[in-house]
Design a protein that fits this description.
The protein is globular. A hairpin with a 5-residue loop joins strand 5 and strand 6. Helix 3 crosses helix 16 and helix 4 crosses helix 5. With 687 residues, it is of the alpha+beta class.
């Protein structure tokens, strides 16, 4: 009976609809439950609510329709500012976007065949002709509207006006259901996908020629049995057009750098996860992440490790650059986000860290890293721990590198160099703080008072912050050499890019930095991953960065490492390029191992240090984790001096239990090679 038919909701009821967030990277209309709305301008249309952040995923999913491949263009767009409406309608919008299938709404099929009176030459939208697209127009009426709701800005209302890809008489007009399209490009999407476009652009940025790109594409198409989509019809003209874009692109959108950056942000909103202009007391912050970087962060960061390469500072950079890194299956670092900021204070950092994690979890709400590495003791670890909800590890590569470079540069005697480095390691890993650290620093400065040039540097750069380093190394578990080598390899590649840059006048501009990072520099990492996954273009990769120090160290045979049983403070490694050379490693197995090879003398973690560290770990020439020592000490104190108050005793036992759980988690990380053990011979003062 009619009285029992379910009543269609009115537009006023849309906020009562459930918000749908399908658990897929991309999703289509078939994966959403649609509701027909009654009355109003959208009467009879299908509507649904999704998170606004997932609109692009929906558009991509709809473009991948198997029966009617398409691409949806933005036909019209309107925006309002917040506060511009006093009494907004329930479906009032902050942003209004109309998406239309690129095969319509105009229909030029009759014109191309020479049939018809030509009365259909004026586009239905009244926008005049569309140069270069007449051959694609087949009268498709499929379109939908997206409204970013005024009263709920985090939600998007999708209004599907016509879900079927049909023309005005209701028949299929493209795709496999259109018999007239069989054997023509109208069977497929009208243009190449964004993924293929980015792939070709990356190849062009790393210097692969047009001929090689076309040849490679033909091999790929033949490999999967011939053309199946529009992407398979890539032509030389397509690549030539993209080559022209690469050649003519200019980072300088305006003479004023600040205005140029704002213009870039407006044009590339999909690449920006956070932007705050330098207005008043607010610092400048720009967070950048491409779609490819987001994919890598989700893929390698889930149940994996992430790290900060914090505050890359060069004289020719206007603001410091911070990089968020993920690690691939070979433990090579991949930049998955960049932040250019004039301040990295805790309150400023909290804004963009939260924005980044929200963006990732919008794509995959189950995404969760295991560990996060920080390399700067001044960073607020609680911000990272709260946002990423994982263990935070401390990576000492930055401090280690700075000390080695300064010691080798400012001290000439090799024996003094190694003794100073070992002494500094004892201070930093002493596990103590306050006056005891201050006394140790005073003793160090007294012992090496004759090294005046280094001491001037040490007083200026290290004395004010050494407590921060000691406290971080005491309270935060330390990351392994494997991850340290990966981060340092990224640092060297980034540094190499800026050292090789010839245009010194532009390097002070933020727009130049943004352009270089998102085009040339990122393309190097895209090529690395593409080559590893497919085996193509291996010869085009930068040979100097094919393997980091960890991977190079794994190639050294165990027999080429010599330990002195009478003196475990020294190990020797035979050179792999000149068998007559033998390098000496002092303090083997520790974070502050020192090798006399040329690479190590530049402050880098060399392959010899890493190989020796691996063997030290395998032969258990290491002390238990500092955290486990703290747990044992706490437990022994509790057993030897049990408190009289039962409530205090219960609290103490609970605290010890939590510590035990933490130790088990850390031991699991240690088994996975993410934690660095401490060497008892090198740091006897711990404990």
């Amino acid at each position: 009976m009619k009285g029992h038919d379910p009543k269609m909701p009115r537009m006023e009821d849309i906020l009562n609809l459930s918000v749908q967030d399908p658990p897929f990277a991309e999703f289509s209309a078939s994966q959403i439950k649609w509701v027909k709305v009654e009355g109003g301008r959208q009467g009879g249309d299908d509507i649904a609510l999704i998170p606004f952040a997932r609109v692009d995923d929906f558009v991509k999913g709809e473009s991948s329709n198997a029966e009617c491949p398409a691409s949806f263009r933005i036909e019209s767009r309107r925006k309002r500012s917040e506060g511009s409406i006093i009494k907004p309608r329930v479906d009032g919008y902050l942003e209004y976007t109309l998406y239309w299938c690129s095969y319509g709404p105009e229909d030029y099929r009759d014109n191309e065949s020479g049939i018809g009176d030509g009365s259909n030459t004026k586009p239905a939208t009244g926008k005049g002709s569309r140069p270069g697209r007449r051959h694609m127009m087949r009268g498709c009426l499929c379109h939908f509207t997206v409204k970013r709701l005024y009263i709920r800005p985090l939600l998007a209302l999708i209004i599907y006006n016509q879900r079927r890809h049909v023309d005005k008489i209701g028949g299929p007009c493209h795709g496999v259901l259109d018999l007239d399209a069989i054997g023509t490009r109208a069977m497929y999407a009208p243009r190449i996908s964004e993924e293929l476009r980015q792939k070709v652009m990356s190849m062009l940025y790393v210097g692969i020629s047009l001929d090689d790109i076309i040849q490679h594409h033909m091999e790929v198409v033949q490999g999967h049995g011939g053309p199946h989509s529009r992407d398979d019809f890539l032509t030389r003209n397509d690549v030539r057009n993209m080559e022209r874009v690469v050649r003519n692109v200019c980072h300088k959108l305006h003479e004023n750098d600040n205005l140029s950056v704002r213009m870039w942000v407006q044009r590339h909103q999909k690449l920006v996860f956070f932007f705050q202009d330098n207005i008043g007391t607010e610092p400048f912050i720009l967070g950048i992440q491409t779609d490819w970087q987001l994919q890598q962060m989700i893929h390698y960061g889930h149940h994996g490790s992430l790290a900060f390469h914090s505050m890359f500072v060069r004289k020719n950079l206007k603001h410091p650059l911070c990089t968020l890194l993920a690690f691939d299956s070979s433990q090579n670092a991949i930049p998955v986000a960049w932040v250019i900021a004039s301040s990295f204070r805790s309150q400023d950092m909290q804004k963009w860290v939260r924005s980044l994690t929200e963006k990732v979890r919008t794509k995959d709400h189950k995404w969760k890293p295991n560990t996060f590495l920080v390399d700067d003791p001044s960073l607020d670890v609680s911000v990272v721990r709260e946002a990423f909800q994982c263990w935070v590890l401390f990576c000492v590569w930055r401090g280690r590198r700075a000390l080695i470079r300064s010691i080798f540069k400012k001290c000439c005697n090799i024996d003094v160099q190694k003794e100073m480095f070992k002494h500094l390691g004892c201070i930093l890993f002493s596990g103590r703080s306050g006056p005891i650290v201050a006394d140790a620093v005073e003793e160090f400065m007294h012992v090496y008072v004759d090294q005046s040039i280094f001491m001037e540097y040490f007083k200026r750069k290290w004395v004010p912050c050494i407590d921060l380093w000691v406290n971080s190394l005491r309270s935060i578990p330390m990351a392994s050499m494997e991850l340290l080598a990966a981060i340092e390899s990224y640092h060297l590649r980034l540094k190499s890019k800026f050292l090789n840059e010839q245009d010194v006048n532009n390097t002070r501009r933020i727009d130049w930095l943004v352009h270089i990072l998102t085009t040339e520099f990122l393309s190097l990492y895209w090529l690395d991953q593409y080559s590893l996954e497919t085996g193509f273009f291996a010869n085009a990769r930068d040979e100097s960065f094919l393997k980091n120090a960890w991977n190079q160290g794994l190639l050294i045979p165990d027999n080429d490492v010599i330990f002195d049983e009478q003196n475990l403070q020294v190990a020797k490694v035979i050179s792999q390029t000149n068998r007559s050379l033998v390098y000496t490693i002092h303090s083997p197995g520790s974070e502050f191992s020192l090798c006399d090879c040329p690479c190590s003398r530049l402050g880098n973690v060399c392959k010899h240090v890493i190989k020796v560290a691996i063997l030290c770990k395998q032969r258990q020439v290491a002390r238990p984790l500092l955290t486990s020592q703290i747990y044992r000490r706490t437990l022994l104190t509790l057993l030897q001096n049990p408190p009289d108050d039962p409530l205090v005793l219960e609290h103490a036992i609970l605290h010890a239990t939590h510590l035990q759980q933490d130790i088990r988690s850390l031991e699991e990380l240690s088994k996975n090679g993410q934690l660095q053990p401490l060497n008892s011979d090198i740091y006897p003062s711990i404990g």
